[in-house]
Every structure is written in structure tokens, then in C-alpha cells.
Amino acid sequence: MRRELGPLLMLTALCLPVTPAFALDGDASAPIEIAADQLEIDDREGTAVYSGTVDMQQGSMKLNAAQVDIRRGDNGQVSLVTARGGGGRAYLAQTPAPDEAQVEGWGNTVIYHAAERRVELVGNAELHQGGDTFDGAYVEYYLDSRRVSARSSRSGEGESDGRVRMTLTPRQSQP
User: Fold this and answer.
1) pTM score, whole prediction
2) Cβ-proximal residues to 153 (8 Å cutoff; 6+ apart), any chain
């Protein structure tokens, strides 16, 4: 069922529970702002599909993609956000703490599991965390523990030479 985009963007932003996408204190209470070329909502299924050039922001968290699917659980909370690049890569960025560098991720598909606070970057995946970078067909990032796992291409998944690449930047000691 299609509805008019303008009022529904506002309604959807108000109806989506504000969950901390990442770590900054102000992010959890910030409104979710979404702009897209098109929106389809299925209230019975608990889904919203934004398409076109999708720009989503909540506090310091930013998500840019060609399509973003949002699924709510039975409790009404956002349970899963899936962003697809549509020919390019989807982009996700957030500042974990005021004194830390922005974390940025790219993938053909970016999947955010809200309950687990876990991000999957799938296909042509890349994660920048501080001065460190991780590249592979698949990169997984746990927001709270800041744990990263990556794997290389398998079965034609993504474009890779079959290796995971990492660049680790030494931490500078404070005098």
C-alpha cells in the first residue's frame, strides 16, 4: 500500500522507538530523521521500506543507501535495519564517544541488529575504526564491545582476492 511521502516520513519517525543506534548519550534521545524518494509501510507486518536516495540520521549516527528496510518486533521496537547500496555501497557512520574518532562502515548491504547492537557489512565490506581499517567480503562489528570480525570472499560473495585486509595503527602514548 502506498501513501503520500511527506506526512508519512514524519509519522514513521515519530512511531519508531528511539533506540541507541550506537554509544553517544544524546543519540538515544535524538529524533530519527529520514528522507527518501519513496516510502511503503505495512503496519500489519511491522515494516517500512524507504527507497531512492535514503538519508537517515539519529544524533551522530548517519546511514546513506539506495534502499532501507526497517522491521519492528512484536513489542514495536525496531529489531532490524537493512540498507542496500543499489549499485554502490551503503554507508554507516557514528561517533562512539565524544573523545573518540567516528566509526565508518561500507558494504553492498549493511544490516543492523538492534537487540544485539551488532552491524554486518556484507559484500565489498570496509570498516574504519579510529586509525584501523578492516576490508573483506564480510565484516561484523559489535557496537558495545567494539569487537570486529572479518572474512574473505567465499562462493563468489563480493569482490575480493580471497583475503581479509587489515591496517592497524599503533596507539600514541600520552606523555
Assistant:
1) 0.78
2) 136, 137, 159, 160, 161, 162
